[in-house]
Amino acid sequence: MDLQKIAEEIDAHQSSGREMEKITLSHPNLSVEEAYDIQKRCVDLAIERGDRLIGWKMGLTSKPKQVTMGVEEPIYGRLTQSMELTEPVLRLEGLIHPRVEPELAFVIKKELGGDNITPRDVWLATECILPAVEVIDSRYKNFSFTHIDVVADNASSSKFIVGDQGFSPYHTAWDEVGVSMYKNGEVVQTGAGAAILGHPVRSVVELAKMLSRSGLTIQPGNVILAGAVTDAVSVSEGDRIEVQYDQLGSLKFSVK
Ligand code: 0L1
Ligand code: MG
To answer: How far apart, in whole angstroms, are the C-alpha atoms of residue 203 and residue 163?
Structure first.
C-alpha cells in the first residue's frame, strides 16, 4: 500500500477544504499504525510548505465518544503553527463543517516521554495550563469516519485558540473546572474537566505513552490540547462563541 499517496490525497483535501470519501472505503485493510504513519506524512507535507509542529492534541477522550467510535483508547493528532488563531476570529474559508469544543491546554517545559510516566511527572513538566477551544473539521463527508480514517486525518485537527493568561498547574483541581459554552448569547454546552479521561492530566500521561510506541516524546514548548470538556457544536458565519471557565475567565471569538 502506498501510504505516501494516501497522505498526499488527504493533504490536498486538508489544504483546500474540500470533503472526501473515507480512505477505508478504498483501503479497508489499513492498520492503526499505518493510519498514524499517514497522519505524520500529511503534517510533514505541511511542514515542507513552511508550517511548524508546535504540539499535540488528544481526541476521543470521553468514554461516551469512545463507545460511539468502538475504541478503547483516545487518539492523538499533531498541532501546527498555522492552526493557531492569533486573533479572536475564526475564518471559515478553507473549512468544511467546523465544530468547536472547549478544552484545556497544557504548555510543557521539560521533555516528557516513556511508557511508565505518571501524573506527577506531568505536573513537574508543566509550565502552565490555559483555557482553550479546539475547532475540529473532519475532511470526510458528513463528519463520518472509522477510527483508522480519523487518525489518518490528523484527528480532525483544524484550528485552535488559547487564552492569554496561563495558570499554574496547582491553581485549581482541573477535573472540577466547570465550563459553559455560549453561542450567540445562549448556553449550548456545559461540562467539567473530569470529562477528559476523568482528569485532564491523564490525557497528557496517555499521550506520552502513545507517542512512546513510535519513539516520540513531548518536547519543551509543546502545547497539548488535552481533550473536549463538552460535545462539539457546529458554527457558521456570524456566530459569536464565548466559553466561560470557572476560575479561568472566558475565551471569546467570532466566526467570519
Ligand atoms: O478532538 C476530538 O475529540 C475529536 C477527535 C476526532 C473525532 C471527531 O472529529 O469528532
Ligand atoms: Mg478536541
So the answer is: 20
The CATH number linked to 154 is 3.90.850.10
> Can you tell me the distance from the alpha carbon of 37 to that of 22, in angstroms, rounded to the nearest whole number?
17
- Residue 124 zone, left/alpha/beta (φ > 0; ψ -120 to 50; rest): alpha
pLDDT mean over 29-55: 98
- Name the residue with the closest Cα to ligand 1, atom 1: 59
Domain that holds residue 238: 3-255
Ligand 2 midpoint to CA 132 (Å): 10
Ligand 1 atom with minimal separation from the 156 CA: 9
| ipTM value | 0.94
Amino acid letter for position 120: R
Q: How far is the CA of 136 from the centre of ligand 2 (A)?
A: 7
Using CA atoms, how far apart are residues 211 and 208, in angstroms rounded to an integer? 5
Task: Convert the pLDDT of each residue in 200-234 to its tens digit.
Answer: 999 999 999 999 999 999 999 999 999 999 999 99
Number of domains in the chain: 1
pLDDT number for residue 72: 82
Atom of ligand 1 nearest to the CA of 143: 9
Band of the pLDDT at 64, cuts 50, 70, 90? confident
Distance 96 CA to ligand 1 centre (A): 15
